[in-house]
């Protein structure tokens, strides 16, 4: 018999799997503009009602909604299912009834925090900086990013790290990343300038004014991941290749030997492109490269594994209907009986999130359930963010800080 | 004139799309649903923001729109191709049986389950969103859970 928790997990997993069309905001703007235009025209022609109604029904795609549609931007949802009729039947998932909530399994790592900053702006947890410090995005009532704060779960106090510089109307911050000394981010314009454009910023991790590192256009602005070293802003681009720009300003410079590499988490790069959440990756990662030292670690995927993806401590991949985990050197191979045809990257240094709400500690084998409420999801989080958050109701958020899990 | 509307769409578009995806089970339908709901929100933005809950407004529109579109699309589809197919799951992974079975539910039952188990809303609020009675919410939920063979036990995680 299935449980209500199984249903929750199925819905959350499906939501995580849905490929997020990047262009919703653009599409809405274009259609709003068109509608306004139509309405003006229609009013002139004294036929407003007819035209508006026609415009409104145009969104229904010819009744073919159930068929894959080559013209949409969101057709990547599925792809391959590895199961063949002869393969083993899907393993039963973890018995969610037997799992305990994260607060019971890791009592020192789950915190209930306010969903609002002291000044009333909305808080979205971005990542954890330490076992007690959470990096928070503070947004206006209407979700414009205003500043970065650190919230201390020990003292319950927050402090401002940096304020977002004034920007043009269509500008928005795409992604943040935490380095040893700096927090970096990049932004683009909503409508995309012809040929692409992005700018790079850093602020001291200890707090201080935001500093603009530079701007890029063209291929260099198609950012797949960012990182901040002690002296440079680093990023990889979608076709592969890693670049740097000195924090003090200067020209973009390609790091030697990074063709076919993508930044994973500075200084590590990998030889598979980052997947968009929901996309299924079949390719296996075959190496980890340290861009500071040049060290390369070869990864040998076990036979039958697909979509193997490794951080420096752990790899996750799919085998048949199960998920496998192993160390990048091939040791510690084991199978997690979760029916899943997609795998999210390793969380923090040694955690995996599966079935939507189940968090596995790959080092200890402990697992727990988090109550992930979708409106609390933050998809712009940093790489392998060691933080999960969900709404607690009554103006509060619950967070699981994986840096505070001590075994 | 309405920067705040653009901010809202940028900030919440992704989460709303995911909500649309669990409601419809289909990425294209979800994108349509979100866009249409946001267009309607845009038309009434200044009235809605005075009440301070644009997100609740959009989610309500999406739930209702999903139910009414489904009726219309099903009609179109029945007329278009004789061998009837389910509304959803044409492009889903085969692994997740429960998700696939959600696609066999009538849209109102599905919406009730999504609001209850994805949005975590109490039945009274679900009733208000869908414009039906609380009793209807309960009976629809109960029917849907039976169909999916989901047992009702004491909630596992009241407080996580």
UniProtKB/TrEMBL annotation, chain A:
Region (Disordered): 61-94
Regions crossing the membrane: 42-60
Keyword Transmembrane helix: yes
Superkingdom, natural source: Bacteria
Biased composition (Low complexity): 68-94
Keywords, comma-separated and alphabetical: Membrane, Transmembrane, Transmembrane helix
Official protein name in the record: Uncharacterized protein
Species for this entry: Planotetraspora mira
From TrEMBL, chain B:
GO-annotated cellular components: DNA-directed RNA polymerase complex
Pfam families noted in UniProt: Sigma70_r2, Sigma70_r4
Domain HTH luxR-type positions: 98-160
CDD domains: Sigma70_r4
PROSITE patterns: HTH_LUXR_2
InterPro entries: RNA_pol_sigma-70-like, RNA_pol_sigma-70_dom, RNA_pol_sigma-E_actinobac, RNA_pol_sigma70_r2, RNA_pol_sigma70_r4, RNA_pol_sigma_r2, RNA_pol_sigma_r3/r4-like, Tscrpt_reg_LuxR_C
Molecular functions (GO terms): DNA binding; sigma factor activity
Similarity comment: family membership: Belongs to the sigma-70 factor family. ECF subfamily.
Name under which the protein is recorded: DNA-directed RNA polymerase sigma-70 factor
């Amino acid at each position: 018999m299935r449980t209500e928790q199984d249903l929750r997990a199925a819905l959350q997993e499906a939501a995580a799997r849905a490929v997020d069309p990047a262009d919703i905001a653009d599409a809405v703007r274009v259609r709003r503009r068109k509608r306004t235009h139509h309405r003006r025209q229609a009013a002139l022609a004294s036929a407003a009602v007819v035209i508006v109604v026609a415009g409104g029904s145009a969104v229904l795609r010819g009744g073919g909604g159930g068929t894959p549609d080559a013209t949409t931007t969101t057709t990547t949802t599925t792809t391959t299912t590895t199961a063949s009729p002869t393969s083993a039947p899907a393993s039963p998932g973890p018995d969610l009834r037997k799992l305990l909530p994260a607060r019971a399994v890791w009592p020192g790592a789950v915190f209930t925090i306010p969903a609002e900053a002291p000044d009333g702006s909305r808080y979205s947890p971005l990542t954890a900086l330490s076992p007690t410090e959470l990096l928070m995005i503070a947004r206006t009532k209407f979700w414009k990013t205003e500043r970065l704060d650190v919230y201390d779960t020990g003292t319950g106090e927050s402090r401002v790290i940096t304020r977002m510089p004034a920007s043009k109307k269509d500008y928005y911050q795409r992604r943040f990343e935490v380095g040893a000394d700096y927090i970096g981010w990049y932004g683009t314009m909503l409508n995309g300038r012809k040929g692409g454009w992005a700018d790079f910023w850093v602020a001291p991790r200890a707090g201080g004014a935001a500093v603009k590192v530079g701007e890029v256009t063209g291929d260099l602005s198609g950012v797949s991941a960012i990182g901040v070293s002690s002296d440079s802003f680093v990023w990889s681009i979608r076709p592969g290749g890693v670049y740097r720009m000195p924090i003090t300003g200067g020209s973009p410079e390609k790091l030697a030997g990074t063709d076919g590499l993508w930044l994973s988490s500075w200084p590590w790069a990998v030889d598979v492109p980052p997947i968009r959440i929901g996309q299924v990756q079949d390719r296996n990662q075959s190496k980890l490269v340290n861009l500071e030292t040049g060290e390369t670690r070869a990864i040998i995927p076990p036979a039958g594994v697909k979509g193997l993806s490794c951080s420096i401590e752990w790899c996750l991949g799919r085998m048949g209907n199960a998920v496998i985990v192993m160390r990048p050197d091939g040791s510690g191979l084991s199978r997690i009986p979760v029916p899943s045809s997609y795998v999210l990257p390793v969380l923090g240094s040694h955690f995996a999130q599966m079935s939507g709400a189940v968090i596995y500690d790959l080092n200890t084998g402990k697992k727990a359930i988090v109550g992930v409420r979708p409106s609390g999801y933050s998809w712009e989080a940093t790489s392998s963010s060691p933080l999960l958050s969900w709404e607690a109701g009554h103006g509060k958020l619950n967070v699981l800080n994986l840096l505070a899990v001590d075994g | 004139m309405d920067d705040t509307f653009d901010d809202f769409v940028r900030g919440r578009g992704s989460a709303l799309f995911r909500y649309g995806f669990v409601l419809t089970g289909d990425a294209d339908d979800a994108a349509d649903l979100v866009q249409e709901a946001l267009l309607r929100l845009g038309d009434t933005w200044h009235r809605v923001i005075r009440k301070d809950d644009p997100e609740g407004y959009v989610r309500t529109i999406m739930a209702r729109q999903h139910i009414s579109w489904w009726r219309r699309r099903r009609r179109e589809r029945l007329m278009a191709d004789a061998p009837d197919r389910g509304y959803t799951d044409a492009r889903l992974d085969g692994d997740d049986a429960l998700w696939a079975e959600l696609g066999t539910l009538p849209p109102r039952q599905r919406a009730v389950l999504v609001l209850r188990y994805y949005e975590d809303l109490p039945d009274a609020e679900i009733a208000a969103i869908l414009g039906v009675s609380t009793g209807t919410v309960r009976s629809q939920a109960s029917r849907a859970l039976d169909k999916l063979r989901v047992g009702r036990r004491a909630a596992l995680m009241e407080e996580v």
